[in-house]
Design goal:
mainly alpha, binds adenosine-5'-diphosphate, binds magnesium ion, 6 helices, single chain
Length: 103
């Protein structure tokens, strides 16, 4: 639909961008669900890596207001510790760190 309208308006150049756009979720804090359905995920795995590698690693308090991504971040950590390599393709922790994503 959007594609067609853009073509009519002579804006073919934007088709690629529109085709690459991912769906945004506002109601899933399930990392596996977001990745498996190719929904937009803002990569926060660099922070997960920092946290895992941190020296002061006994307790962490995520002091952010509601809807700031705490639950999704925890779900991401869960997937990391489960070694779900299949879910991290293209994300920072898999591509740019030495972290071994193994079950
Ligand atoms: N890194 C992210 N990438 C994409 N969407 C996100 C991200 N973090 C949070 N969201 C979206 O924001 C919503 C609220 O996040 P959530 O983890 O439930 O917040 P909190 O637990 O802090 O209340 C999620 O359901 C998800 O749709
Ligand atoms: Mg929450």
């Amino acid at each position: 639909m959007i594609r067609g309208l853009r073509r009519i308006a002579g804006m073919e150049a934007y088709d690629t961008i529109v085709d690459d756009m991912r769906e945004i979720t506002t109601d899933s804090a399930d990392f596996e669900h977001i990745r498996k359905h190719n929904l937009l995920y803002v990569d926060k795995t660099m922070y997960a890596y920092e946290l895992i590698r941190s020296e002061a690693r006994r307790f962490f308090f995520l002091s952010r207001p509601r809807r700031y991504g705490k639950s999704l971040f925890c779900s991401t950590l869960h997937a990391i510790f489960d070694g779900r390599r299949d879910l991290f393709t293209g994300l920072h922790i898999a591509e740019h760190t030495d972290y071994e994503l193994t079950p």
